[in-house]
């Protein structure tokens, strides 16, 4: 890419399995947008490009050009395929300034291979009662056609190479393999059917080992979010005409427990033997697992790609590749609080939490915030100033967050937690920032 958004001149080398990560506004999404911008315009008959389409939205040339270059210079996006053929697209500002032109019609490049690029956004379809029947289109960038697809092809016999556990006979159908992975990831199984005399499909779920079927609208968002990913990627077992397609997946971790995130990565790593996968994530669980299993992590730093693999000589920081984030969706999480504390425990070389707290009390960050801790009683204070019965920071914080309304009316003297959810979140954020200060002052990042 040359002169595209934050990139003056940057080459990204993708492998079979790729993870894009880095701080917010570092340029991760711009890489995906460059690919989607061309995908959006493959079928256009004109030199003027579709700037406001289903994938990306650019109102004018100035929105996508690098801010350090003049408008007179073109934007270049160059694609290489596995045969080392290359396609260069030069985008320039139209004379009327109302549109963006390509110096040559994109369709003339005959990029039929690039029609094998499939994208699913972070804004995926959640639980709904019914879905449209599958009508021969794609799964959809919101996963909107996933249920219709499985309803149509659930009994389709798939090639053995796409089957992870070949000892289970039911896995040899499309639905069977979807359910194998859905059970592994989230402990559920799915069934889908087309509704008679309608153009709609419906999905039901059943917990492994149980008989009760639950309609999709009565399940959690994580289930709907992950099943669309599984169906989209496994669809290559049905669409045999596709040769090593590319799947671009934004934030696969949304609404998934860390253990489920790891299982999802096992699925995607297995499928990357037959396709190319590019994901964008903020999940340190995903990043670590991918590197440990020979995937490639591309960290965008100062608008340049840094490549991390299992055998690379780069040192991978333990906490989200050096990107200290207490939030993904502007909400502090107790899980990240615990991860930070565990990181400190390993860095201090402590085997028990109370030893870790002793080390924390010696730090500059703690001394400057000593009001948080009562040195006489060796206990953390809660909001009202009373001494908490819990000694270590993670135990204290988990109880503050998880049990804010655990109040016995007959014992008013024991009412420890009387504050709003926003105040608890503020306390959690403050505690996270406190541990981050300790990490920085010790030079561990």
UniProtKB/TrEMBL annotation:
Q: Which Pfam families match?
A: AAA_21
Question: Which InterPro entries does the record cross-reference, listed alphabetically?
Answer: ATPase_AAA_core, Bact_Antivir_Def_Nuclease, P-loop_NTPase
SUPFAM superfamilies in UniProt? P-loop containing nucleoside triphosphate hydrolases
Asked if the keyword Glycosyltransferase belongs to this entry, the reply reads: no
What keyword terms does UniProt attach to this protein?
Membrane, Transmembrane, Transmembrane helix
**A GO molecular-function annotation:** ATP binding
This protein's source sits in the domain of life called Bacteria
Q: Which residues cross the membrane?
A: 222-239
* All residue ranges annotated as the ATPase AAA-type core domain in the record: 17-287
Q: Which PANTHER family match?
A: ATP/GTP PHOSPHATASE, ATP_GTP PHOSPHATASE
Entry protein name: AAA family ATPase
